[in-house]
Amino acid sequence: MELFAGLLTTVLGIAGAPGIAIDRVATDFLRSQIVRADVLEVRVDNAPNYQVLLGNVDRVRVAGRGVYILEFLRIDQIDLETDPISIDPNSVQSGKVVLRRPLQAAVRVVMRSEDINTALRSPKVQSSFKSLSIDITGTNKNPEILDLLNPEVTFLEGDRVRLAATLQAQPTAAKPKPSALNVSINAELKTIGGTRLQIVNPKIELEGTPVPEKIAHAFAKGLNSVLDLRQLESKGITARVLKLEVTEGKMQVIGFAKMDTIPNQ
User: H-helix or E-strand containing 216?
Assistant: First the structure.
């Protein structure tokens, strides 16, 4: 949200300056805030032009292809389009953006399996997979300390996703050379009420052997709690998923977000 606030501040800050192409300046600003992009274009619709001086913009459209928001995370496609925007122009002088009415935007994002897997293999992400406390038995009595190795995500036809990894127990006095355990999860990905992404009917296998349904559903329950968009409401952001489509190698999410104020300025 700081990024969007910066974009709006840039647009209003140059309003009225002669010879300034707002679209180009806005595009250059976004490029300066990300790592890189194959294609990135910003279109600011404001007719007549003087309404920008009053803090009003008809629409902002952003189209990106091959966008790296982090060095190790690539977004295949992103398209964003706002509703009309109204900002207090006096607030820009202080470097903040004060909305005169809620800001709403529709967004479409396409992610590829291979890009997610590249991110999962990056050193920064790999470090978060070390020394995990995992209860393989589902009893919550004897969790093991494991490293998660070689994680891989595969998007499948029919809105399904496959997650695979190797669980490597850390050496102990009792087991100085613990064996590794291959785990895979095949599940359907759905949206519930537009606010939650949920893993449905998970099938989990350890070394090719299905685990009991009780354990599979307990795992899915924990993962689903992380995928709840309602967590954003505490930050003043209302987000909804309008369409989720998973096909071979790709996942497409279409949704919208609404903000009464822009946080974290």
Answer: helix 213-226
